[in-house]
Write a structure and sequence with these properties.
- One of its GO terms (biological process) is Notch signaling pathway.
- By secondary structure, the protein is of the alpha+beta class.
- The chain has one domain (2-184): Hypothetical upf0131 protein ytfp (Roll).
- Helices cover 31% and strands 31% of the residues.
- It contains five helices and seven strands, in the order βββαββαββααα.
- The strands form two sheets. The protein has a five-stranded mixed β-barrel with strand order 1-3-2-4-5. The protein has a two-stranded antiparallel sheet with strand order 6-7.
- A hairpin with a 2-residue loop joins strand 6 and strand 7.
- The longest helix has 16 residues, at 69-84.
- The protein is globular, with a radius of gyration of 16 Å.
Length: 190
């Protein structure tokens, strides 16, 4: 079984897996339109990533292969992390590995928040999203870390991919907090 992650799962899956592949799914856009009061927030909702259906779009991330006992353990963990605490639904999608020699797409499970979700915040400007990210943190860490780690993943593992929404929010965040400037060297130290 394969599980696709497009947010914090790309750097912190939290479950055992057999292998992982960087790649993308088609038909969905990554958006910071989902609220969370547990992982990276408190009583105030803040934006974290979700996928929205968008016919022409592609979303890059990581697919994890789980086998045997890993399947039940990973699903139990993710159902709490993503469904119970996050309000996400599950869908099966075609995952296209980044490797050039990949033959066919792989069927993967993905967790997606829908507009019917009570924590769904909906569209907002990149500046408003960045301002909310700056003031939000929870048991999994600060939301600034979430945004920057996701942007770094895209830069280093998927340099050919575009994610205007993600990088526009990062740019807005840096313009609000100019002291937040970081370098490649400082990221390698963490």
């Amino acid at each position: 079984m394969w599980i696709f992650g497009y947010g914090s799962l790309v750097w912190r899956p939290g479950f055992e897996f057999t292998s992982r592949k960087v790649g993308f799914i088609r038909g969905y856009s990554r958006r910071f339109w989902q609220g969370d009061t547990f992982h990276r927030g408190s009583e105030k909702m803040h934006p974290i990533t979700t996928l929205l259906f968008h016919f022409q779009a592609s979303t890059w991330g990581v697919a994890y292969e789980v086998r045997g006992e890993q399947i039940a353990a990973s699903l139990q963990y993710l159902n709490v992390r993503e469904a119970v605490l996050g309000g996400y639904d599950t869908k099966l999608v075609k995952f296209y590995p980044q490797e050039k020699d990949a033959e066919e797409p792989i069927l993967a499970l993905v967790y997606i928040a829908t507009p019917q979700n009570p924590s769904y915040l909906g569209p907002a400007s990149e500046e408003d999203i960045a301002a909310q990210i700056i003031v939000s943190s929870g048991c999994a860490g600060h939301n600034i870390e979430y945004l920057l780690r996701l942007a770094d993943f895209m830069r280093y593992f998927c340099p050919q991919a575009e994610d205007k929404h993600l990088f526009s929010i990062e740019e807005a965040l840096v313009s609000i907090l100019p002291c937040l400037y970081y370098t490649e060297e400082s990221l390698e130290e963490t």
